[in-house]
Amino acid sequence: MRIGIVCYPTFGGSGVLATELGKALADEGHQVHFITYQQPVRLNVFNTNIFYHEVRVPTYPLFDYPPYEVALASTMVDVIINHDLDLLHVHYAIPHASAAYMAKQIVKQKNGRNIPVITTLHGTDITLVGKDKTYEPVVTFSINQSDAITAVSNNLRDETYHSFAIEKEIEVIYNFVDVARFNKKPIDAFKKVIAPNNEKILMHASNFRKVKRVTDVIEIFAAVQKEIPSKLLMVGDGPERHICEELARELGVVEEIRFLGKQEQIEDILAVSDVFILPSEYESFGLAALEAMAARSVVISTNAGGLNEINIHGETGFMADIGDVQSMSGFAIELLSNETQLEKMKEAAYQQALLFDIKNIIPIYEALYGRFCRMNN
Ligand code: GMT
Predict the structure, then answer these.
(1) According to the model, what pLDDT value does residue 375 have?
(2) ∠ CA(196), CA(202), CA(208), 5° rounding?
(3) What does the domain layout of the chain look like in residue ranges?
(4) Gyration radius of the chain over CA positions
(5) CATH superfamily label, 179-354
(6) Closest-CA residue to 120 (of 71, 68, 156)
(7) Which of 38, 200, 268, 349 is the most buried (most CB within 10 A)?
(8) What is the pLDDT of residues 161-215, one digit of tens each?
(9) For the segment 330-348, what is each residue's pLDDT rounded down to a tens digit?
(10) Looking at the chain, which runs of residues are DSSP E strands?
(11) Whether residue 302 has its Cβ less than 6 Å from ligand 1
(12) What is the mean pLDDT of residues 147-170?
């Protein structure tokens, strides 16, 4: 099949997932065309089945806001026609689903073809941004106009039905992880630099937005630090990072924390971590948690959104209510004080991640595409 993938090219979960999906489809022999405004961060391989089309957004002094959606729709039309695409798969509703609707209408009018559009909902496109009444009518309309709609968890599907008047079936296709890539042996030299005295290593990775409650990570770590010799790795960057650094200084733990910024080789960092902390206010799924589990790190998270669809409390990790820093610290201290329990839960986390292995999820997407592909119609 010839598949067009539209996503955000940044470190965010939706872009990561879309890029990994495209890479896996290319490995299966499909021709994959990425249409984005920048090379996606995880698109770091050479594969003759992968094509990249940059969306250029020409500026003009009149534009306070360059019309990205128009440029995106026009690029979609160009790629659909010139590369004879079989379907478009857009990730994150805003503005990708509405741009795809526009492209679909133009292609229909230009050459009579009905290009199928599949929209995958990822999280904040529904729960935060999409709900805003500035966007809601367009989001509802363009989701309903998609030929197929998927959501990354049951929770996100339910949230979508709850917040928008959706007339179609939303299929749940879970996020996935390439377990073989994440199941890595820790690099000893790296571990020695981070934890020279064999301290336990806690980790957090995100875009440091408000929804991630990153200051809770610092508070949890400060409590753990009092009981267990430990270090904290903070991976990623975003608006709340400086607040974290200030809080860490205030709590006297800044020397034990490394802020690593945005990282591409996340699997090498996860490999040295014992516990992954994700105290988010909401996660539709929590791809970062799944990647941690595949790397045998035990996830201590909130029970928000779809997190309980991957993390099993007391078995593969621990969960507490949003903002319950005390319970999350308690779980971490208990776990890190008991080596047998820690090893047992690391293994359980890994076994749970295997259920979401890329090999199990790619065929589900292929079957979905097959339902809409010209060859089968
Ligand atoms: O987590 C973020 O803020 C980034 C966001 C995105 O769309 O890039 O992630 C969302 O999509 C991921 C992939 O499907 C999910 O695993 C994340 O849970 C989800 N984030 C939220 O719902 C906050």
Answers:
(1) 60
(2) 125
(3) 2-174+357-376, 179-354
(4) 21
(5) Glycogen Phosphorylase B; (3.40.50.2000)
(6) 156
(7) 349
(8) 999 999 999 999 999 999 999 998 888 889 999 999 999 999 999 999 999 999 9
(9) 999 999 999 999 999 999 9
(10) 2-6, 31-36, 50-54, 87-91, 117-121, 148-151, 170-172, 200-205, 230-235, 257-261, 275-278, 298-302, 317-320
(11) no
(12) 96
pTM score = 0.94
CATH number of 2-174+357-376: 3.40.50.2000
Task: Say if 2-174+357-376 and 179-354 have the same CATH topology.
Answer: yes
Pocket test for ligand 1, best of 14, 152, 157 (most atoms within 8 A of CB): 14
Residue to mutate (ligand 1; options 42, 120, 284; most atoms within 8 A of CB)? 284
| Length of the chain as a residue count | 377
| Whole-number Å distance between alpha carbons of 161 and 168 | 10
Structure tokens at 352: 């749970």
Place of tokens 């890595």: 184
Exposed, middle or buried by CB within 10 Å (0-12, 13-18, 19+), for 370?
A: middle
